Amino acid sequence: MTLTQLSAFVLVARLGSVRAAATTLGVSEPAVSQAISALRRHFGDQLLIRGENGMVLTAGGQRLVGIAAQMVGLGAEAESAVRSAHGAPERLRLIAPSDVVEFVSGPLAEAFGERAGGRVETTSGVAGVAEMAALLSQRLADVALGPQLTDRSLGLVSEPIFRCRLVVLTGPGAPPSGAPTRWPWLVDPSGADRDGEVGRLLNRLGVPETRLRVFPNQTAAWEAAARGDGVAPGIAHLAAHQLRRGELQVVELAGTPTETCWYATTLPPERRSAAAGSLRRFLDTPDAMRLLRAPGAGVPPSRFTPPVYVTIWS
Hints:
Elements: H1 3-15, H2 18-25, H3 29-43, E1 48-51, E2 54-57, H4 59-85, E3 90-96, H5 98-116, E4 120-126, H6 129-137, E5 143-146, E6 157-170, E7 185-187, H7 197-205, E8 212-214, H8 218-226, E9 232-235, H9 240-244, E10 249-250, E11 258-266, H10 274-282, H11 286-293
Parallel strand pairs: 3-4, 3-5, 7-8
Antiparallel strand pairs: 1-2, 5-11, 6-9, 6-10, 6-11
Helix pairs in contact: 1-2, 1-3, 1-4, 1-6, 2-3, 5-11
């Protein structure tokens, strides 16, 4: 039995499928399946069985999942303690939807790193809404920036930090005609996440998945909208430069703009890392508010990769 096997088990239990766990860990589905199989042999219990809506814990799996999550968390604490003993910078892993990572995470991490005086090494990456709570609860990530995470059973603290508006954008000229369900919708990866703000907007409008065109980042989606290829939802202040130059315009659409909010989600104060606590306090400062209000140019985001260094099926 290894920590990586336990980590895979907890993620399958939290996310409900082997595929979702594999995506989150950045490994193949067979690798996760082999990790679960190894644990089944070790405990002599199925642990997880397939149900109507995904994987379901057996009675033995229900007893194991809480203990396994604690063991994975202790492993992360042990790694942090050893790094600290060697004088290495404390690691801070920030996760967020792709648009937040593209525009906000980099400037925030740079400003926070300068304030920390090199004592913290910050990395950031994209994670889906459903993944965020699982990653935080397992200490595979330290801070989530973006939507509110409401799963109280995992003991997470989600606090509002910045209010913003979700709008629909298109290129200059005449707005699209016909029903929104027939428009071409140009989205970044976070827009394809049905649990995210854009996903919920598209669901309210009844937009079918066949009308979505997913781009690698928000900037690419907006460039396509500026060419007249369709409409692109996004956070209004992130597109301020394009709106000011007249490259994009806001579409008047019932139910928009949508008032929304970015949250910072962490473990409770007594369980979060020192670096996570420092970043959480930094997010309340005028410097952080300025960066959230006027972020820099978009940088293509990369997907978050949890710190799993051992081959997961070993």
